[in-house]
Structures are given as C-alpha cells and as structure tokens.
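Narrative of accomplishments. A recurring question from our advisory board has been how the design workflow behaves on a single, concrete structure rather than in aggregate. To address it, we present the structure tokens for one chain from the evaluation set, followed by the sequence designed for it. No filtering or post-editing was applied between the two.
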C-alpha cells in the first residue's frame, strides 16, 4: 500500500515522540505512571479522530461521542470486573451483592470471556449509533438541531447509567480491575504493553483514516460538509454516507474507550456526560478541525495541559479551556495546527 509522504512523516514523528517516553523510563527520567497516562492520551487521540471524521470532514456536530466511548469502556470493564471477581472466589461483583442481586444478569454473561467482550466493545457502539443515526438522518435533522438532539441523548444515557437498576455500578461505575488476559494490570510491564498497543492502534488507525478521507468516500463526505443540498441532487445517497460515517466514528470512540478502561482502572458515567462530549469537540476544534493530525495534536496537547493545570488550579480548568476556545475562534480558527503552519511559513520566509 502506497503511503502519502505527509502521512508517513506524521507517523514517524508520532513514533519517535512516543519512543522517547519508554527510553526516558529506562534512564530513570520518566515514571511508568507517566507512560500509562500518555497511553490514555493516545486513546483520546483515537476518539478525536473519530470525531474529526464526522465533524471536521462531514460537518455533523454530534455531541454524544463520549457515550460511545463509554459503551466500549463499559463492555471491557464488565469483562475485567468479572475476571477480578472470579479471582477473589466470588460469584458476583461487590456492587451487585450490596444491591441484593442473587444472580449474574443475563446481559453480563457474554462478557465472561475476552474475545466476546472485545467484539461487543466494538459492536455495541456501532449498533447503537446505527439505530439512532438512522432515525436522526432519515428525519433530515442537521445543524444546531443535530447538536441539541445528540446532547439530549447523551444526557439521558448519563442519567440512566447513574441508576443502580441498570446493574452497571450506578454512580460509582466499574472498578477494581485486576488482570487482563492473565497479566497483572498493576505491573509495569503490563502498563508499558498497553501503552504500546494504544500507540500502535493510533498509528494504524491514523493511516486508515488518512486513506479513507482521500478516497472517493471521503471526497463525498467533504462535499456533504460543503454543500449537502447540492450532493442531494447527485446519485449519492446522503443518508447512507452520513449514517456510515456516524457508525465509523462511534466505532473509533468505542475502541478508544475499550483501550482506556484497563489503563485507567475505572469507568464511570461521569465520562459520558454532556461536559465530556463538549470537551471532546474542543480537542478537535483546538487542534484543527478537518485535519486528522490536528485532532491528534488537540487531544494530546489539551489533555496534557489538563493534567498540568488541574494540579495547579483544580477549579479553573473549564475557564482555561473556554478561554482557549475563544482565542481559537477569534484569532486562529484552524486550531493549533493552523497556528503551527503559519509560524512555519513565517520562519521559512525569514
């Protein structure tokens, strides 16, 4: 497969950047926990690419992508929790015992084994996205109404997952994970392995998404973004394309959530609320909407900035994020990537 030179350059830069952390760990300069944190950032970057496909390249502002992220996370979390429960010699997870459940719910049983859980982590977000996307796009809902409906859907699911009756841990979510495929999740080698898996999948998915947006399918998506009305007069069925990219975006978010859960050790409804979806959109907007590398840069930089600022100003993060967003809209609408490109041009001219 022929790789675009710019894509190859971006992949090389990402790989070299990521290799620096394990090397720093070997030299005693970087802790394994820092490496694990960056592994989570790579998961966020995968989700950001999914959001960029639907928002940056297709022009659909969906505000429920955090929900799809959590569906993948919960699916993997259910498997991890069942394995941890078996290791402790218990029949049911603790939260079920506390809520007087006498038997494992039927919908938990497929998650007792890794490969069904892996498949469901991808399948469930895709199926849910296919169902809600079909009804939304068939009704020709778009623009601000699309944002409002998906935001309301995300809020409804958040409130539903908070309830103990859903048998998914309620407010506390799922936690106390011990092993993954027999590997101790608290071991440094396992954390490093998950870091490399996250990086590898991010690189492969960036390559695949780059090929997708340069394909005929990707050109149609960009045409829908620029003028859906005109595309409607062609032989291309706009509904099918919008539904397909909505499912692909949900699939990427679900995959990101599946990778995120074993690395962070917990998944809660707080990761799917409206604020979480807005933050995901801001990753893409701040990084550079309509460019996959911009989405990756935005996810990595914003989350790195989040880690730094919350340790210094715990209550001020949303104000800082809002300030950055206002600056982006007013002064560099192409995000951080656009700013970097302008600076690069000025340096070359000078």
């Amino acid at each position: 497969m022929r790789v675009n030179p710019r894509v190859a350059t971006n992949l090389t830069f990402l790989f070299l950047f990521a290799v620096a952390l394990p090397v720093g760990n070997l030299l005693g300069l970087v802790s394994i926990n820092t490496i694990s944190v960056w592994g989570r950032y790579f998961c966020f970057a995968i989700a950001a690419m999914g959001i960029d496909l639907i928002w940056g390249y297709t022009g659909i502002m969906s505000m429920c992508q955090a929900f799809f992220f959590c569906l993948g996370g919960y699916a993997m979390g259910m498997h991890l929790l069942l394995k941890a429960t078996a290791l402790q010699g218990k029949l049911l997870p603790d939260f079920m015992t506390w809520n007087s459940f006498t038997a494992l719910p039927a919908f938990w049983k497929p998650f007792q084994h890794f490969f069904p859980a892996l498949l469901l982590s991808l399948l469930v977000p895709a199926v849910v996205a296919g169902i809600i996307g079909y009804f939304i796009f068939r009704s020709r809902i778009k623009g601000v109404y699309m944002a409002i409906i998906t935001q309301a859907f995300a809020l409804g699911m958040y409130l539903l997952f908070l309830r103990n009756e859903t048998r998914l841990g309620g407010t506390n979510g799922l936690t106390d994970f011990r092993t993954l495929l027999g590997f101790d999740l608290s071991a440094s080698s396992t954390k490093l392995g998950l870091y490399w898996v996250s990086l590898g999948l991010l690189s492969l998915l960036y390559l695949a998404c780059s090929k997708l947006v340069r394909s005929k399918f990707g050109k149609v998506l960009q045409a829908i973004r620029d003028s859906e009305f005109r595309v409607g007069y062609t032989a291309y069925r706009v509904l099918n394309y919008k539904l397909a990219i909505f499912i692909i975006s949900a699939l990427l978010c679900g995959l990101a959530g599946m990778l995120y859960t074993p690395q962070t050790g917990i998944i809660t409804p707080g990761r799917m609320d409206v604020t979480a979806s807005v933050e995901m959109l801001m990753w893409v907007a701040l990084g550079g909407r309509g460019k996959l590398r911009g989405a990756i840069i935005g996810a990595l930089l914003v989350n790195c900035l989040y880690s730094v600022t919350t340790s210094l100003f715990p209550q001020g993060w949303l104000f800082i994020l809002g300030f950055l967003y206002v600056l982006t809209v007013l002064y560099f609408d192409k995000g951080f990537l656009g700013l970097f490109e302008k600076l690069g041009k000025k340096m070359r001219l000078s």
